[in-house]
Amino acid sequence: MNHYSPESFSPTQSVGFAINKARNVLINEMDAALKELDITSQHVGILLSMRRGVATTPFELSKLLGIDTGLMTRMLDKLEKKGLLERSRSIEDRRVVNLKLTKEGEAISGQLPGIVPMVLSRRLRKFTKTEFEELRRLLNKFLAD
């Protein structure tokens, strides 16, 4: 089913516009909440994924978070420069780069579960539980191929 046509399309009324605007609002609020930790919302997924052992290589992180490898490399460079993670080559396969959080990276990533949910909950405060579940369901449906 086509929900848009060239005649009826209005960029500011499109789903893409609304999703992008919602993303920008969320990023701004998240970045403000993370300012004291000297990280950005882009770093949250990386740090939490590494902390939980879900991903330990740049490739795994790129795939999990849906971030292209070039951008992932730049973000990892920043986190490494801040002293939050270390890179090392795999002994078994020198092409593979392993990632490990430093003590400071562990400390900062340990604070994220106390910050991120508060920002998200504040943005979702007007939603009922049913509306929240429906939003998640619809976003997952939108993202599915």
Give the tags.
145 residues, mainly alpha, Arc Repressor Mutant, subunit A, 6 helices, 61% helix, globular
Task: Give your account of this protein's structure.
The protein is mainly α. It has one domain: Orthogonal Bundle (Arc Repressor Mutant, subunit A). Helix content is 61%, strand content 7%. It has six helices and two strands. The protein has helices at 15-34, 41-51, 58-65, 69-81, 103-123, 129-143; strands spanning 85-89, 97-101. The protein has a two-stranded antiparallel sheet. Strand 1 (85-89) and strand 2 form a beta hairpin. Helix 1 (15-34) crosses helix 5, helix 2 (41-51) crosses helix 5 and helix 3 (58-65) crosses helix 4. The two termini are 15 Å apart. 14% of the residues are buried. The mean pLDDT is 95.
Q: Based on helices, strands and strand pairing, what is the structural class?
A: mainly alpha
Main sheet overview: 2 strands, antiparallel
Helix proportion range: 55-70%
**Annotated CATH homologous superfamily:** Winged helix-like DNA-binding domain superfamily/Winged helix DNA-binding domain
Rounded Rg: 18 Å
